[in-house]
C-alpha cells in the first residue's frame, strides 16, 4: 500500500495505526511476560486443570516439606481453582468475588479472583517443585533482593515452589461478544516450611468481570452497572477479620495492575504471607513513617551495618542516618538494592533501645524513625577471636557476612587488623578507644585469619581489643574514638565505619610476676576501698543451686560459667566451678560477683583468692552514660577484672598482692540473702501456687495470674480451648508489667513455638522481637530483659524485670499449651493475689477469691465457679496485644462447660509407657489423648519441683575470720556447719576451739590466740643477763667519760697556763679588775721552747684599731663594761667569776692588754647575744655555767686564784710602784717594784707551762 493510498483513506490510516499499536503492545507484553513469568506450560512439565467451569484440585505437599505457613497457620495441602484463586482448607468454587474480609474458613490467596471460564478459552497450568535448582535459586534471589532487611542474617533459601499460571483465560459468557478478551497472570508460592512468600506476575489483562457478576458481555468490564463486581486481588485469613487487599481491587482500575508494582518491576507484586499479618514488599511514598531495620540488635562497640527500608528511594535521594548524635551518610545502590539503604553504627555508651532517624534530603529533616537494641559485648559471639601459641599470635575473623555498606564479594575485600586500647580518664571524664598497633595490613577477608610473632608494645596498656576494618579505613596516627562526658568527639576520623571487634582482654604481660606485683601495688596505692555501707548491693546466694535458680537477680558470669562451651570454663580458677553476677547494679553503680566450689558452697575472697567479690563497676553500666566507670562491660573489665588478674593469678596468687585486691574489693557473704519463690501454670492447665497448693482450673479467657499492688506488678494469662470437641483448655498467652516498665507478652504459635512481643509504653506500640544476632534483648532503662533459653528443639523465653521478678515460658514439644514458671522477688511476700495465690507461707488461704472467700481443692467444680472465673479481667484492665483476627468479645467465656472427669479409652499399659507414675501426665494424656500434652505437663512439674528445692531458704551465720596467730578449718558458714580454730605453736588459745552455726548465730566465744608468756626462771635469767649487760655498758660509758674529762682538764689547764704567762700588764693596765683577752697572732704562736713572757714585743704584733669595748671576736658587737656604777669593779665570790672564751674562730689565750681590740666581747655578752650599744654602764652580772662555757680561772687553778694574785700586785704597786711592762708605753714603772715577788710568780707559771708541755710530749 502506497503512502498516497493511505492519505486518501483516513479510515485505513487509523486502522493501520491501531494494528501497529496492537502489535507493539503485544510485543511489549510478550517481552514483559518473558522477564517476569516463571516458565509454564506443558513443555516444562506443567499439569493442567480440567477444562471445566468453576472447578479446582487439591494438592498435597511433598513429604520433604513440613508445612506451607499462611496467616500464621501451617498447612499440608492447598487447592488450585479456575477462578483465579489458591485456597486452603476448602475449594473455592464461588465465581463472583466478595470484598475482604471473609469468614467461614475461606483462606484465600487471590492473584485475580474473577469469573474465569476456561471452557471459553485458555488454560490453567500448575506444578510443584523441590528439585528444580534454577527456579529455586531464582526465587531465593528475588526474596533476598526484596526482603534484604528481614533476612540479612538468616538468609532465606527456597525449598518448595508452586507455580500456577492462568494462560489467556476468558471470562464467563465471553463468546457471546464480538471480541474474545483474555487475561494472563501467574501466582508463585515459595516456602522453606518456616517462611512463605507469594509473587504475582501480570501479563496481558483485558477483562475484570464475568457476565454472571454483572459484567459487560462485550468488554468484560464492570461498566456502569452498580451491581458489577470486578476482580479482587489480595489475601484473606478466613476469620472474617484479617485480610490484605491490593489497591484498586474490585474496581475497573484493577486492570492496570500489570503496569504497577510494589517492587519496582511493573507487572510484579510480592508479599510475605507466613505471619499473622501480610507484609507487602517494597516501599511506601509516605512523607514520614516507621523504618524496618536489620539487625534489630547491635553490639555496643559499633561497626554493625544497619539495613534500613520503608520509604521509597531513588537516584536523587541524599540519605543520612542519625544515631547517638552521629550523622552518617548512608550507602545506597539503586540498581542492585532499590529498597534498602545502609548505615554503620557508632560506639554506644548505654544498653537498651536506641532510636534511628533517617533523612532523604541530606540531613535537613529526619522524618522517618526506627529502633534498634544495643546489647553488651558478652551477649553476642565475638566476630574476631585472638589466640596465642607461645610467641605466635593468631587473629581470626568471620569471612561471611562482613558488615560492608556495599555489595562487594568477599574475594574483593581486603582488611586491616588493629590493636586498640581502652582507657578511662576520670580527670577529664573521657573514655577512649585508641589504635595503638597495626597487626595485619591489606589481608584478604576470605583468608579468615592472620598469624604473626607476638608484637611488643612501646608502652603497656591494660585493656586491648582487636578490630578488623576495611583496608585503609583507619590510620594508626588517628586519635581513635572518644567520648567526653557522654558526648562523642567531633574528629572526622571518629565517623562510624563497618568493623568487627574481639572481646576485650588484659593486655599486660602475662608471664612477668614481678611486673604484675608492681602493677598491683601501684593500683592499690591509687584505688580507694569500696565503702559498701548503705549501698543496696544484692547479697550473694549461699549455694550454687540458689545462684543458678535465682534467674531474676543473678546470671552466669561469662568468665566462669559451667554452661559455657569449650574446655576452659573458668580461666585462672581451679577450685571454683561456677560464678554468677548480679543482674542489677546498686544505686552507686556497683556490681556483685559470687563464686562456688565443687561442694556447691560460696567461696569468699577472704578464704580463697579465687572467690567472688564486690565489683566497683556494674557490668551493665550506670548513669550518667558515657562517663568513666559507667560504660557497660568495659568499665567493669578495666576496673575489676583486670585488677583481679593482675593482683592474684598473674602474681602466682602472691598473698601480699592478693590482699591488696581483697582489701579494695571485699567479698559479700550470704547472711542477708533471700531467695525467690516459684509458682507455675502448665498443661491442661495445672496450677501450683507460691505456697505450694496444687489444683486444676479449666478456665476459658483472660485471667489475673498474679497481682501485687504494693510493687505495681501485674501478670495475666489467656487460656483457650486446645482441641476441638475436647473440653480442655490451656495457657496460650502470658503478659506482664512491673511499675512503669514495658509490657512483655509471650504467646505460643504453631510455627515459631513462641513469639515475644513488647509494648513500648513510651510509644504505645507493639513490636515483635527478633533474635538475629543475639539471644538477648533489653528494654533498659525501662526495666525488662528478654533472653532465649534452652536448646532449639525445646527453646523457651525468660523475662526478667529490674524489680527482681522473672518468669520463664516454654512450649513443650508437640504440646499446644505453654508452661510458665514465675519466680517472685522476696519483696512480693505477703502482697500477692490472683490464681497463683497469696504468698505468705500459709497454704490454707491460697485460693482466695477477689471478694475474700477462701476455697479448698476438694471440689474442682466449686473452685471453678466461685474462685477461678472470679479472676476474669475486664478489657480496660487488659495488658494483652490483640491480633486483627481476634474477636475480643468472644475471648472470655465464663459459661464454658469445663469437664474435670476423665473418660478415656487409654489402657494402663499405654499410660505407664508414656507417663509412668506422674499424675499430671496421666491426667493430661487421658483428658486430651495427646501423649505430648502428658509428657509436657510432667516435664513442667519436674522443672517446678527442681526450682522449688533449689530456692529453699538456708540460714547463714556470716563470715568468721581466723584469729591472728592462728588458723581455722572450714569455710562453710551455714546453719549446722562447724569451724575449728587452732593457734600456732607456742601461742595460747582463749575462747572456743570450735564454733557451730545454729539458727543464724555462732555458738561459743570468740577465739583469740595470745603470744606465749615467759616462765619465771626464764624471766629471772633474762633480768640477770640484762643487768649484767647494762652494768658493763654503764662502766664502759663511765670509763669513756673519765678519759674525756681528764683529757679536757689537761687541755684547759694548758690553755689557762698560757693565759697566765701573758698577764704582764701594769697595775694601771688592769682596769677595774676586768681581765681582757686577745688572740695570738698567727705568726706568734709559741713553740715548745719559747714563751710570750720573754717576748716584750709580742703585744705590739697584735692587730689594732679604734673599735672599743670588745671582749669576743664577733664582728657586729661591742662589749659589756663590767664596771659598777661607782667606776669600780664589783667584787664577787670566786665561784661566780669566769673568764670569757671565744665561741668561734682561732684559739684564744688570755692577755692583760688595756686597749680593747676589735671583735671582742665579754663572757656575759657571748651568752646573752650581740650588743651594738657601745660602752655599757651596766654592772657585771653572773652568767650561769653552761656545758659549752669556759671554766672560771678559779676553777682552772684553784691553788692560786688570779684575783688574789692581782690583789697582791696592786698592793705591791701601792707600796713600791709598778712592776709590769706597759705595752702601750713600752717602759717600766720601777716605782715601788718588788722584784722578788714578780720573779716568784714568773717562775711558778713557767714551771707549770713546762710541766704541761712535758706531759704533752
UniProtKB/TrEMBL annotation:
<protein>
    <recommendedName>
        <fullName>Sushi, nidogen and EGF-like domain-containing protein 1</fullName>
    </recommendedName>
</protein>
<feature type="domain" description="NIDO">
    <location>
        <begin position="111"/>
        <end position="276"/>
    </location>
</feature>
<feature type="compositionally biased region" description="Basic and acidic residues">
    <location>
        <begin position="1097"/>
        <end position="1110"/>
    </location>
</feature>
<keyword id="KW-1015">Disulfide bond</keyword>
<dbReference type="InterPro" id="IPR013783">
    <property type="entry name" value="Ig-like_fold"/>
</dbReference>
<feature type="domain" description="Sushi">
    <location>
        <begin position="955"/>
        <end position="1011"/>
    </location>
</feature>
<dbReference type="InterPro" id="IPR051495">
    <property type="entry name" value="Epithelial_Barrier/Signaling"/>
</dbReference>
<dbReference type="InterPro" id="IPR000436">
    <property type="entry name" value="Sushi_SCR_CCP_dom"/>
</dbReference>
<keyword id="KW-0768">Sushi</keyword>
<keyword id="KW-1133">Transmembrane helix</keyword>
<dbReference type="InterPro" id="IPR005533">
    <property type="entry name" value="AMOP_dom"/>
</dbReference>
<feature type="domain" description="VWFD">
    <location>
        <begin position="677"/>
        <end position="879"/>
    </location>
</feature>
<feature type="region of interest" description="Disordered">
    <location>
        <begin position="927"/>
        <end position="947"/>
    </location>
</feature>
<dbReference type="InterPro" id="IPR035976">
    <property type="entry name" value="Sushi/SCR/CCP_sf"/>
</dbReference>
<keyword id="KW-0812">Transmembrane</keyword>
<feature type="signal peptide">
    <location>
        <begin position="1"/>
        <end position="24"/>
    </location>
</feature>
<keyword id="KW-0472">Membrane</keyword>
<feature type="transmembrane region" description="Helical">
    <location>
        <begin position="1019"/>
        <end position="1046"/>
    </location>
</feature>
<dbReference type="Pfam" id="PF23263">
    <property type="entry name" value="C8-3_MUC4"/>
</dbReference>
<dbReference type="Pfam" id="PF00084">
    <property type="entry name" value="Sushi"/>
</dbReference>
<dbReference type="InterPro" id="IPR056619">
    <property type="entry name" value="C8-3_MUC4"/>
</dbReference>
<dbReference type="GO" id="GO:0016020">
    <property type="term" value="C:membrane"/>
</dbReference>
<dbReference type="GO" id="GO:0007160">
    <property type="term" value="P:cell-matrix adhesion"/>
</dbReference>
<dbReference type="InterPro" id="IPR014756">
    <property type="entry name" value="Ig_E-set"/>
</dbReference>
<feature type="compositionally biased region" description="Basic and acidic residues">
    <location>
        <begin position="1129"/>
        <end position="1147"/>
    </location>
</feature>
<feature type="domain" description="AMOP">
    <location>
        <begin position="512"/>
        <end position="665"/>
    </location>
</feature>
<dbReference type="Pfam" id="PF03782">
    <property type="entry name" value="AMOP"/>
</dbReference>
<dbReference type="Pfam" id="PF00094">
    <property type="entry name" value="VWD"/>
</dbReference>
<feature type="compositionally biased region" description="Basic and acidic residues">
    <location>
        <begin position="1203"/>
        <end position="1213"/>
    </location>
</feature>
<dbReference type="InterPro" id="IPR003886">
    <property type="entry name" value="NIDO_dom"/>
</dbReference>
<dbReference type="Pfam" id="PF06119">
    <property type="entry name" value="NIDO"/>
</dbReference>
<keyword id="KW-0732">Signal</keyword>
<feature type="region of interest" description="Disordered">
    <location>
        <begin position="1078"/>
        <end position="1238"/>
    </location>
</feature>
<dbReference type="InterPro" id="IPR001846">
    <property type="entry name" value="VWF_type-D"/>
</dbReference>
Amino acid at each position: 500500500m502506497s503512502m498516497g493510498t493511505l492519505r486518501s483513506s483516513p479510515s485505513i490510516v487509523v486502522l493501520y495505526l491501531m494494528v501497529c499499536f496492537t502489535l507493539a503492545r503485544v510485543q511489549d507484553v510478550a517481552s514483559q511476560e518473558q522477564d517476569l513469568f516463571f516458565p509454564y506450560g506443558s513443555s516444562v512439565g506443567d499439569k493442567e486443570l480440567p477444562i471445566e467451569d468453576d472447578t479446582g484440585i487439591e494438592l498435597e505437599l511433598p513429604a520433604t516439606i513440613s508445612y506451607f505457613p499462611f496467616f500464621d497457620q501451617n498447612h499440608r495441602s492447598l487447592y488450585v481453582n479456575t477462578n483465579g484463586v489458591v485456597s486452603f482448607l476448602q475449594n473455592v468454587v464461588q465465581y463472583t468475588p466478595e470484598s475482604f474480609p471473609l469468614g467461614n474458613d475461606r483462606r484465600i490467596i487471590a492473584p485475580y479472583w474473577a469469573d474465569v471460564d476456561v471452557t471459553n478459552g485458555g488454560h490453567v497450568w500448575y506444578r510443584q517443585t523441590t528439585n528444580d535448582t534454577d527456579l529455586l535459586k531464582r526465587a531465593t534471589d528475588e526474596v533476598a533482593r526484596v526482603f534484604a532487611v528481614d533476612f540479612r542474617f538468616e538468609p532465606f533459601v527456597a525449598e518448595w515452589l508452586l507455580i500456577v499460571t492462568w494462560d489467556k483465560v476468558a471470562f464467563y459468557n465471553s463468546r457471546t461478544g464480538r471480541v474474545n478478551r483474555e487475561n494472563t497472570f501467574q501466582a508463585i508460592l515459595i516456602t522453606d516450611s518456616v517462611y512463605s512468600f507469594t509473587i504475582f506476575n501480570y501479563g496481558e489483562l483485558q477483562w475484570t468481570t464475568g457476565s454472571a457478576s454483572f459484567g459487560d458481555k462485550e468488554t468484560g468490564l464492570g461498566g456502569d452497572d452498580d451491581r458489577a463486581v470486578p476482580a479482587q486481588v489480595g489475601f484473606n485469613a478466613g476469620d472474617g477479620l484479617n485480610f490484605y487487599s491490593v489497591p484498586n481491587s474490585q474496581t475497573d482500575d484493577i486492570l492496570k495492575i500489570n503496569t504497577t508494582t510494589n517492587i519496582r518491576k511493573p507487572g510484579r507484586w510480592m508479599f510475605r504471607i507466613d505471619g499473622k499479618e501480610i507484609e507487602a514488599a517494597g516501599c511506601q511514598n509516605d512523607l514520614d513513617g516507621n523504618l524496618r531495620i536489620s539487625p534489630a540488635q547491635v553490639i555496643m562497640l559499633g561497626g554493625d551495618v544497619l539495613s534500613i527500608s520503608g520509604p521509597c528511594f531513588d537516584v536523587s535521594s541524599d540519605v543520612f542516618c542519625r544515631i547517638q548524635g552521629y550523622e552518617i551518610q548512608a550507602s545506597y545502590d539503586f540498581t542492585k538494592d532499590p529498597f534498602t539503604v545502609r548505615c554503620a553504627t557508632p560506639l554506644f555508651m548505654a544498653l537498651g533501645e536506641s532510636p534511628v532517624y533517617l533523612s532523604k534530603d541530606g540531613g535537613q529533616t529526619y522524618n522517618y524513625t526506627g529502633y534498634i537494641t544495643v546489647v553488651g559485648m558478652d551477649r553476642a559471639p565475638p566476630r574476631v577471636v585472638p589466640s596465642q601459641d607461645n610467641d605466635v599470635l593468631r587473629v581470626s575473623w568471620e569471612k561471611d557476612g562482613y558488615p560492608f555498606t556495599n555489595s562487594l564479594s568477599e574475594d574483593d575485600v581486603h582488611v586491616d587488623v588493629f590493636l586498640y586500647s581502652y582507657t578511662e580518664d576520670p580527670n577529664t571524664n573521657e573514655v577512649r578507644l585508641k589504635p595503638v598497633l597495626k597487626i595485619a595490613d591489606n589481608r584478604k577477608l576470605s583468608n579468615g585469619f592472620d598469624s604473626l610473632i607476638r608484637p611488643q608494645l612501646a608502652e603497656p596498656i591494660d585493656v586491648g581489643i582487636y578490630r578488623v576494618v576495611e583496608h585503609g579505613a583507619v590510620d594508626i596516627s588517628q586519635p581513635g574514638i572518644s567520648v567526653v562526658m557522654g558526648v562523642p568527639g567531633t574528629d572526622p576520623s571518629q565517623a562510624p565505619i563497618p568493623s568487627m571487634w574481639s572481646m576485650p582482654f588484659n593486655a599486660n604481660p602475662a608471664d612477668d610476676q614481678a611486673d604484675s606485683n608492681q602493677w598491683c601495688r601501684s593500683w592499690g596505692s591509687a584505688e580507694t576501698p569500696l565503702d559498701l555501707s548503705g549501698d543496696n548491693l544484692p547479697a550473694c546466694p549461699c549455694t550454687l543451686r540458689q545462684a543458678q535458680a535465682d534467674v531474676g537477680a543473678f546470671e552466669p558470669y561469662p568468665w566462669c560459667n559451667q554452661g559455657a562451651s569449650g574446655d576452659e570454663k573458668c580461666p585462672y580458677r581451679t577450685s571454683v566451678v561456677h560464678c554468677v553476677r548480679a543482674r542489677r547494679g546498686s544505686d552507686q553503680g556497683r556490681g556483685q560477683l559470687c563464686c562456688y566450689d565443687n561442694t556447691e558452697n560460696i567461696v569468699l575472697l577472704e578464704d580463697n583468692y579465687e572467690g567472688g567479690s564486690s565489683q566497683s563497676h556494674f557490668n551493665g553500666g550506670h548513669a550518667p552514660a558515657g562517663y568513666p566507670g559507667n560504660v557497660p562491660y568495659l568499665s567493669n573489665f578495666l576496673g575489676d577484672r583486670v585488677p583481679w588478674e593482675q593482683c592474684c593469678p598473674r602474681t602466682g596468687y602472691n598473698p601480699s598482692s592478693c590482699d591488696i585486691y581483697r582489701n579494695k574489693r571485699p567479698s559479700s557473704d550470704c547472711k542477708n540473702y533471700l531467695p525467690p519463690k516459684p509458682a507455675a501454670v502448665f498443661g491442661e492447665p495445672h496450677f501450683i501456687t507460691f505456697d505450694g497448693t496444687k489444683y486444676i482450673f479449666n478456665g476459658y479467657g483472660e485471667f489475673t495470674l498474679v497481682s501485687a499492688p504494693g510493687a505495681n506488678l501485674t501478670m495475666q494469662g489467656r487460656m483457650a480451648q486446645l482441641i476441638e470437641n475436647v473440653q480442655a483448655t490451656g495457657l496460650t498467652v502470658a503478659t506482664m508489667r512491673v511499675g512503669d516498665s514495658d509490657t512483655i507478652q509471650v504467646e505460643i504459635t504453631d510455627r515459631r513455638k513462641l513469639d515475644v512481643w513488647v509494648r513500648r509504653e513510651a510509644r504505645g506500640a507493639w513490636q515483635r522481637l527478633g533474635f538475629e544476632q543475639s539471644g538477648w534483648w533489653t528494654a533498659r532503662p525501662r526495666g525488662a530483659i528478654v533472653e532465649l533459653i534452652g536448646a532449639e528443639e525445646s527453646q523457651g523465653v525468660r523475662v526478667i524485670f529490674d524489680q527482681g521478678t522473672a518468669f520463664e515460658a516454654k512450649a513443650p514439644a508437640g504440646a499446644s499449651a505453654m508452661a510458665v514458671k514465675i519466680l517472685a522477688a522476696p519483696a512480693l511476700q505477703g502482697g500477692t493475689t490472683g490464681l497463683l495465690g497469696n504468698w505468705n507461707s500459709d497454704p490454707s488461704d491460697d485460693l482466695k477469691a477477689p471478694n475474700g472467700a477462701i476455697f479448698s481443692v476438694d471440689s474442682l467444680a466449686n473452685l471453678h465457679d466461685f474462685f477461678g472465673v472470679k479472676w476474669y479481667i475486664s478489657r480496660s484492665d487488659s495488658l494483652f496485644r490483640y491480633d486483627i483476627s481476634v474477636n475480643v468479645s468472644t475471648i472470655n467465656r465464663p459459661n464454658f462447660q469445663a469437664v474435670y472427669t476423665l473418660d478415656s479409652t487409654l489402657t494402663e499399659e499405654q499410660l505407664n509407657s508414656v507417663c509412668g507414675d506422674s499424675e499430671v501426665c496421666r491426667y493430661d494424656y487421658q483428658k486430651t489423648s495427646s501423649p505430648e500434652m502428658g509428657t509436657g505437663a510432667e516435664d513442667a512439674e519436674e522443672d517446678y519441683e527442681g526450682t522449688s528445692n533449689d530456692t529453699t531458704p538456708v540460714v547463714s551465720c556470716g563470715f568468721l575470720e581466723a584469729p591472728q596467730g592462728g588458723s581455722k578449718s572450714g569455710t562453710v558458714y551455714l546453719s549446722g556447719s562447724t569451724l575449728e580454730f587452732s593457734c600456732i605453736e607456742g601461742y595460747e588459745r582463749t575462747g572456743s576451739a570450735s564454733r557451730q552455726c545454729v539458727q543464724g548465730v555462732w555458738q561459743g566465744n570468740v577465739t583469740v590466740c595470745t603470744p606465749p608468756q615467759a616462765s619465771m626462771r626464764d624471766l629471772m635469767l633474762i633480768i640477770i643477763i640484762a643487768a649484767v649487760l647494762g652494768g658493763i655498758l654503764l662502766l664502759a660509758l663511765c670509763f669513756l667519760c673519765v678519759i674525756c674529762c681528764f683529757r679536757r682538764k689537761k687541755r684547759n689547764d694548758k690553755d689557762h697556763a698560757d693565759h697566765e704567762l701573758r698577764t704582764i700588764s701594769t697595775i694601771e693596765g688592769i682596769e677595774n679588775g676586768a681581765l681582757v683577752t686577745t688572740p695570738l697572732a698567727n705568726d706568734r704562736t709559741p713553740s715548745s721552747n719559747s714563751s710570750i713572757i720573754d717576748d716584750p714585743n709580742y703585744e705590739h704584733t697584735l692587730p689594732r684599731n679604734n673599735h672599743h669595748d670588745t671582749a669576743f671576736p664577733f664582728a657586729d658587737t661591742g662589749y659589756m663594761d663590767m664596771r659598777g656604777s661607782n667606776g669600780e669593779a664589783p667584787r664577787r665570790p670566786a665561784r661566780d667569776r669566769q673568764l670569757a672564751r671565744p665561741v668561734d674562730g682561732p684559739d684564744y689565750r688570755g692577755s692583760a692588754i688595756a686597749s680593747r681590740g676589735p671583735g671582742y666581747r665579754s663572757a656575759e655578752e657571748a651568752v646573752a647575744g650581740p650588743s651594738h650599744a657601745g660602752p655599757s654602764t651596766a654592772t657585771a652580772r653572773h652568767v650561769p655555767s653552761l656545758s659549752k662555757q669556759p671554766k672560771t680561772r678559779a676553777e682552772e687553778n684553784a691553788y692560786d686564784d688570779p684575783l688574789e694574785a692581782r690583789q697582791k700586785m696592786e698592793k705591791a704597786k701601792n707600796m713600791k710602784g709598778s712592776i709590769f711592762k706597759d705595752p702601750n708605753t713600752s717602759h717600766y714603772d720601777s716605782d715601788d717594784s718588788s722584784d722578788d715577788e714578780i720573779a716568784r710568780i714568773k717562775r711558778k707559771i713557767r714551771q707549770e707551762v713546762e710541766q704541761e708541755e712535758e706531759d704533752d710530749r
